[in-house]
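Friendly challenge for the regulars: who can give me the structure tokens for this chain first? No prize, just bragging rights.
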Amino acid sequence: MPIYMETSRLYRTVTTVARGLVTAEEIRNTVQQLFDSHLPEYTKIVDVSAARSDLSEEQIQRVADLLRGDADDTRGAVAFIINPNRTGFAHSFANITRGDRPISLFKSLHEAREWLANSGLVRAELMAAPAGKSGEKPSPWNDPNREGMVLRGRRARAVAIA
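First reply, four minutes later:
Bragging rights claimed.
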């Protein structure tokens, strides 16, 4: 299954959505894309609620090690959206990296966004800006300059954001 990743450079936030069976290679390539794009310090929302993988603890540890980079690098908070009826990648990743960064598991996108907004983990000065003409307050989820990408195996394709 492909993995969809959307980046708001203004808000320094990455939203990733995975569906279906996600292979170790796809996860590794997505993490490498984050690393190559200099995004490890960005806040992340990772929706794995409809995804499954067969990664071992050792493979998840390697993913965490890749994201750690240098000891001096900062790492952004991670909000995982999970299926509460299943234990998987998100639980293991959270346990392995618990001391590295703020990380939490949620049952809904709304809860994840609320946690990030209320904990000051998203650029607070931008979130506090007044509503625009449409009445919608600015956020990483309506940034008109956000970038989308679909990752499948080793291939990556840019996607236009409407």
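Residues 3-159 form one domain. The two ends are 23 Å apart (CA to CA). Your move, everyone else.
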